[in-house]
Amino acid sequence: MHKGKGIKVIISMIGLDGHTTGGEIVARVLRDAGFEVIYLGATQTPEMILKAAIQEDVDAIGISSHASNFHQIEYLVELLKDNGMGDVPVICGGNIPKHVASRLKGNGIAEVFPPGSSSAQIIDYVTANARGAARKSA
Amino acid sequence: MKRETDYGYALKGAYGPEDVTGFDYSRDLADPGQYPYTRGYFPQGYRSRMWTQRMTAGLGTSAAANLVLKNYREMGQTGGICVISDRVFSDCIDPDHPLGRREAGILGWPGCSLLEFEELMDGIPLTGQSITLLGSSAPSVMRLAYIVALAQKRGIDPSEVHGSCMESPFENYFGQTDVSPFDLNLKLFLDAGEYVLRNKIRMRASIISQHFQESGGNSAQALAICLSMIKEVCGRLINERGLDFDTTSLFPYELVSVGTRFFDEIAKIRALRRMYARMAKEEFHAKTEKACQLLIAIHTSGRTMTFQQPLNNIVRCAIQTLAGVIGGCTALDNATLDNAHSEPSALAARMSLNTQHIVAYESGAADVVDPLAGSYYMEALTNKVEEEGYRIYNEIQGMGGMIAALERGYVQDMLSAEAAKKFQEIDRKERLVVGVNHLVIPEEDDFEIPIQEVHSHDSEKIADRMEAWKKTRDQAALQTTLAQLYADGKKGDRFNLMPAIIEAVKAYASVGEVMGTIRLARGLTYDPFDMIQCPYAYE
Prior knowledge:
The structure holds two protein chains of two kinds. By secondary structure, chain A is an alpha/beta fold. Chain A has helices spanning 21-32, 46-56, 70-82, 98-106, 119-129, 133-137; strands at 8-13, 36-41, 60-66, 90-95, 111-113. Chain A has a five-stranded parallel beta sheet with strand order 2-1-3-4-5, with helices on both faces. In chain A, helix 3 links the parallel strand 3 (60-66) and strand 4. Chain A is globular. By secondary structure, chain B is an alpha/beta fold. Chain B has a domain at 52-427: Alpha-Beta Barrel (TIM Barrel), CATH 3.20.20.240. In chain B, helix 7 (182-198) links the parallel strand 5 (162-167) and strand 6 (202-208). In chain B, helix 9 packs across helix 14 (376-398). The longest helix of chain B is centred in the middle third of the chain and has 23 residues, at 219-241. Chain B is globular, with a radius of gyration of 23 Å. The N and C termini of chain B lie far apart (66 Å). Chain A binds chain B through residues 15-21, 24-25, 28-29, 42-43, 45, 66-72, 95-99, 114-116, 118-120, and chain B through 87-88, 90-91, 99, 102-103, 106-107, 136, 175-179, 214-216, 306-308, 339-343, 416, 419-420, 423, 427, 433, 436-437, 451, 454, 456, 529.
């Protein structure tokens, strides 16, 4: 699969949460689909993720969340906007209650993938919505 | 759809005598209470000792967690308590640390000082029930120090408290990461082990193959990893701390994950008892019967709790609980129906606890010990998972043991490949999960369930209280005890830091201060995130 060719994505945990399995699997799924994946791992602050996003000039950011740290995800979106990277979509996955998912989407998070999402759903979404997706598919 | 175990053994449609050729009752099973304990440790099973029925607590402030524990007691949880730490305590920083402030009391109990433990345990007995404190490996020494300190304050001999409060350093590789370096976690873990064993404190350490399996490992791998972890820990306590095996065998207990594949799970638990007993006798030359009996607690599988149609999880939880009970266990706690959404709500917790009560008192499963023994299928399945478990165990031992295998990346690669395989199997519908990849309903038709809110303003409240309270402590006592800890910390890996840690904890030193001091003595930064400096000068 080469759907992700030319698309650079960060996959990261946020805050102190150490449940890394979901993020690691998504990183693997995207890599297998041809994306360039930068996996940051655990104990990443919003500031650290911003720094990596600027340095690596990524096209999308995936945040894995285990029932917590929602405010830090919203803060990351703010930081990206303040640093001229508001066009990089932040996509979340993990144990996130439905009403929180709605709130996150209202606050600038591009999409929220619940547990049980398929690899096709994730790959298609990132391919279609990464920064410059229209240009790349043209 | 695959009809095979998670470790790839293809199941037949029916089993018969030909599947258990060479079966020898006294060698392979023996009566309940007899070596190799395949059938359990008690001749009368749960009639002589009912398993401890418990739910994990811990969210928000210590006072809030205390209320939850009291509620669980009213729901019939009298055998023991189980509390999980928040991520701040797990990473050994304080709530008033810049990062602690963001998530104190989220995902667990904010136990950063003895004050918090005193509030958690207010009005709750330390004895007469088991005390289980979960979290990550790094703060194991703090949790032990709290128990010793509070027991002494209440005029109780610490040896009268029983339960578990330590976690093996291996969990960092299984999706339960903390930020402390492995060598420090291992040193402190062995310190805690040596301290409880020499002082005859009946506090155990969890050796958690559950984390390994919840991160995607299969049943046979989990058996191999479990035995390898115990072998490494006991071996080090023997070789580095001068204890004998029969003594060290009182340190570990195993926390096993139980999923929905009913028969496979029962076979796994039976195989674990037999494999451990053989390792104890043949490899460590155990002298007592007790040293051949591995204490097994069960956590029903959180990863099998689906986001879609969460009420279905009640059924999954019931199947898993029944498997755990038939397999045989000392204690059991459940995942909850809302696990894929949030932390357990009061309703979900009650539902899970009631699941155990129904299995215990209504189903009859607790009346007869090891009821599936002698079934062609069950014995064949027990042999199969054991055979595959031994294959992996022998590979790990061939590399030099658990730590050597981790250093080579063998365990990590095995886990990561297996986790990817499990995801793929569901993705490709080789394994069916109702409501997820089979019989899916539109999202709007799904039932709504109550959701436990996690509030970030609680974190600020916990942090502000901690910051103000820190200034009210006896500064002289703090400095003296921490200076002693610093001095001891420089005396090498085999010098036991537990006595100095307990003194500092009694002076209300926080986890950030205790671990920071130990880190400094070892030449590390005071703060694992290097954002704050040590408030004291030791040299």
